[in-house]
Amino acid sequence: MSPRRFAVVGSPVEHSLSPVLHRTAYEVLGITDAVYERHQVRSGGLAQFLQHGAGRGLQGLSVTMPGKPEAYALGAEADETSRRLGISNTLIRTGQQWRAENHDVHGIVAALRDHGADRPVTGAVLGSGATALSALAALSELGVQSVLLSARSTHKLAPLEELAAAHGLTVQQVPWEEHHEVLTAEVVVSALAIDGARAVAEQWRSRPELSIPGVLLDVLYDPWPAPIADVIQRAGGEIADGLEMLAHQADMQLRSMLAVPAAPVPEMLAAARRELARRRRDAPV
């Protein structure tokens, strides 16, 4: 009997730790009839991949950038979070169709709660795009009432402002040249890519005084410590990293893909950290 096939797709995807997380869960849970693959799928190519490419026969997908809007559009049905945000990071085959799910929001909420975020009143998101949108939804789920938003391209904040308004949140847009002001919030999520994060961190290091939030989640995890997380950690702040977020969202994906009650998150996270350490040891100097 052929094994059930699952995969992570995106571009780039070679760095993804999803195979480590999912395969570790298979091992711990004793799942022997499933395999987890990795496939490069560029923007605009997800439907073609699933219909005519190596994606034929897959039972479920973890979808990373840039395919999350496409994943949502392909779903004949979708969970409430996907419908609210218009993006999905998971596709589950249902007969000849797909169900789109978004577990990024859960991943962010769970990672922040692990670090003491308990009913914060104020939150902030640094950056824009799909991850920033999920971060804002997560802050709303945690109970924040007002949010600070800051991005280099202010027009890209429009979807976040619309989502905040839909949730009844008070929004203040922080000018990019004053992005350090987001740190006055109780809970902060940095959704910046590595180049932008390096530039922000360099500016923050040069400030004589810097506000320290109750907890900051940096969605980056490789390299670690990520630039922004490093600045806040050195200043004594509480840090959650993107790998914790990834493990928690993989937990929910595995529940949907395999119909298991829960995934072994501690073991998955430990395996992913070991893999990151191995990559650093083996990296050319």
Strand and helix layout:
Layout: E1 4-10, H1 18-29, E2 34-40, H2 46-52, E3 60-63, H3 68-74, E4 77-78, H4 80-85, E5 90-94, E6 97-101, H5 104-114, E7 122-126, H6 130-142, E8 146-150, H7 158-166, E9 170-173, E10 187-190, H8 194-205, E11 215-218, H9 227-234, E12 239-241, H10 242-258, H11 265-282
Parallel strand pairs: 1-2, 1-3, 4-6, 7-8, 7-10, 8-9, 10-11, 11-12
Antiparallel strand pairs: 3-5, 5-6
Helix pairs in contact: 1-10, 1-11, 5-6, 5-10, 6-7, 8-9, 10-11
Q: What's this model, at a glance?
A:
The protein is an alpha/beta fold. Helices cover 42% and strands 19% of the residues. It contains 11 helices and 12 strands.
Task: Describe the protein.
This protein is of the alpha/beta class and 285 residues long. 42% of the residues lie in helices and 19% in strands. A six-stranded mixed sheet has the order 2-1-3-5-6-4, sandwiched between helices. The protein has a six-stranded parallel sheet with strand order 9-8-7-10-11-12, with helices on both faces. The longest helix has 18 residues, at 265-282. The N and C termini lie far apart (45 Å). The model has no long low-confidence stretch (mean pLDDT 96).
